[in-house]
Each structure stands twice: as C-alpha cells, then as structure tokens.
Write a structure and sequence with these properties.
By secondary structure, the chain is of the alpha/beta class. The protein is built from 14 helices and 5 strands. The chain has a 5-stranded parallel beta sheet with strand order 2-1-3-4-5, with helices on both faces. The longest helix has 37 residues, at 112-148. The radius of gyration is 25 Å and the shape is elongated.
Length: 321
C-alpha cells in the first residue's frame, strides 16, 4: 500500500520564499499547501490538516508569533509541529518564538539540508503522536466491545463520558481533567474484557468466588492502559471508580478524599446511569427515585455527598435550560 504524502503548510507573504520552499519540499515527496497570511492559514489548517507548518515571523496582519500562540493554545491543533522562519537573529526574538510555542526555527537565508533535517525530525515526532492517538483509539474500541457484550447497557460509556465531563466543567476542573473524564467514561470498565460472560451477565447474585474475579477488573483495566502516557490521568479513574466514601469499596479500600477526585466524579454519574437503566434483574428507576436513592446512599457512606449535590444541581440546571 502506498504511503500518504505528508502535508506541509507554508505560511509566508513573500512569493519568492514560498516558491523556493514549494520546490524544495515537493522534490522530497512532500505535499505543499501555501498561505500568505494568518486568516488564510487558519482556513488551510481546517481543510488540509497539515502534518507540519512552516511559519514566517513577519506577515501582514497578525504576526507569526500571534498565529503560533493561537494554534498552540487550541487543544485540537497544538500537536501540529511549527517551524518559525525568520531573518531575525536577536535572542529576544527567539525567546518570543519559544514562548509562543514554536517547535523549531529556521533562519534566512534558507539552506536546503538544514531545512530537510528539521522537517524530517519534526515529522517523525508527528508520526509518533499520531500513532499514540491510533493506539488510544484501539483501546477505546476495545472498551466499546466490552460494553457491547451486555445488550442492556446501551450507550452507557457515551453517557458517562458526557455527564462526567459536564460535571467536571461545573466543578471548574482544568482542561486536562475534563479530557481525562471523557476518556474515563469509555475506559473505566475496560478490565471487564477479562471477565467471563457467565459472570459478567449474571447480575448482582454473584458467589463470593465470582465477586473476587469481578473485583479484579479495575486493576486489569489500569494495567492495560498503564503503558500509554497519554492516559496517565485516566488511570486513577479506572482503578478507583468502585471505591466507597466510607472505605468499603475496592480494589484498595480508599476512604473519603483519599479517593482521587476524578474517580469520585465518574463514580457519581456511573451510579446514576446504573439506577436509571433497566437490567434483567431490576427495573429502571425514575430520576426522582434515583436522586432519593443516591442521597440516601451518600448519607450511608457510599458516595461523596458534595459531588452528589453538585451532580443533581447540574441536572436541574440542564432541565431548566
């Protein structure tokens, strides 16, 4: 199978520089897209999805520094490597570029071998991050496969991902924590891939030996995801979403605020979804019944009472809206 040509976006208002870079880069098999200013570059990024950006510092309108800073502050685009091209040699200008988030620099006049070396290096890095994204996608697909083994859960993972991230936003958590909650919604029960169907689909009437097997799934899920650094904030969610506020949960018997906050957040929405979803061994409770049950259980020491309050306040706000 022929490999896709990597796309490089050249952003420069000087036609001679653009033509030179296009000629050099296409000679090495790269696909080249060009833009002469920031707004045109943003449109090209949206439509062309470049693997690398060569960005001139001085342009009409917004400078290269400003465009670089905007791209690096956007989670959807911050992993695109940016090489800033400048005729400026002053240290302060390089510092400005570093502060804006530039990954590398090229000085004018351009030397082909230096250009090729820097482009090659950053494209290898981009390939690596793309592979990590792909591997993460495979794990999420595996988690959805686990969910599909139970025909009664429906879109349980998608619902948890949505409500956990919404509750995280309501709590004022940072962006990385919100992303961890979104991923945790899909990956929290990944370890159930190792649980036999006979146990997984049995319901609540498990024998002591069967419970011992079932209680291993948070640890197994953590082990599956542990090699991926991009999931490091998700690991506590996977491992600890069955801990109880009073210390009676598993696998580690953590208590109160020793249970990681993100795990407690996911736990609250997980319990609500379980209560409001029908199973062969139980009917679905109404919203009011679920709230009453969860508040009673929080008072008995199962769930974080503050997060239960915050979650139902969020649901009231959504209903009012």
């Amino acid at each position: 199978m022929q490999r896709r040509a990597q796309t490089i976006l050249v952003v420069d208002d000087k036609i001679d520089t653009v033509l030179l870079l296009r000629e050099l880069l296409t000679s090495r098999g790269y696909r080249v897209v060009t833009a002469s200013e920031a707004e045109e570059a943003l449109e090209a990024i949206q439509t062309e999805r470049p693997d690398l950006i060569l960005l001139d510092v001085i342009m009409p309108g917004r400078s290269g520094y400003e465009l670089c800073r905007e791209l690096k502050s956007d989670p959807a685009r911050r992993l695109i490597p940016i090489i800033m091209i400048t005729g400026l040699t002053d240290r302060e200008d390089r510092v400005r570029g570093i502060e804006a988030g530039a990954d590398d620099f090229l000085s004018k006049p351009l030397y082909p071998e230096e250009l090729f070396a820097r482009v090659r290096s950053l494209l290898k890095l981009k390939e690596f991050t793309d592979e990590l994204d792909h591997a993460e996608g495979v794990i999420v697909s595996l988690a959805l496969g686990v969910e599909a083994r139970d025909p009664y859960t429906g879109d349980h993972c998608a619902r948890l991902s949505f409500y956990a991230s919404e509750l995280g936003k309501a709590l004022g958590l940072d962006y990385d924590s919100i992303i961890a909650l979104k991923r945790g919604g899909f990956l929290h029960d990944l370890g159930k891939v190792s649980i036999p169907d006979a146990i997984l689909k049995k319901g609540s009437s498990l024998s002591p030996d069967e419970w011992k097997i079932m209680r291993q799934h948070p640890v197994i899920g953590e082990q599956i995801c542990a090699p991926m650094k991009s999931l490091r904030q998700v690991l506590p969610i996977i491992r600890h979403h069955h801990e109880h506020w009073d210390g009676s949960g598993y696998p580690d018997g953590l208590q109160g605020e020793d249970i990681p906050l993100l795990a407690r957040v996911l736990q609250v929405v997980d319990v609500y979804d379980a209560l409001t979803t029908s199973r062969p061994y139980k009917r679905a409770l109404s919203h009011a019944e679920s709230e009453e049950t969860m508040r009673r259980e929080a008072a008995a020491g199962f769930w974080d009472p503050r997060l239960v309050d915050e979650f139902f306040a969020l649901l009231r706000q959504r209903q009012a809206a």
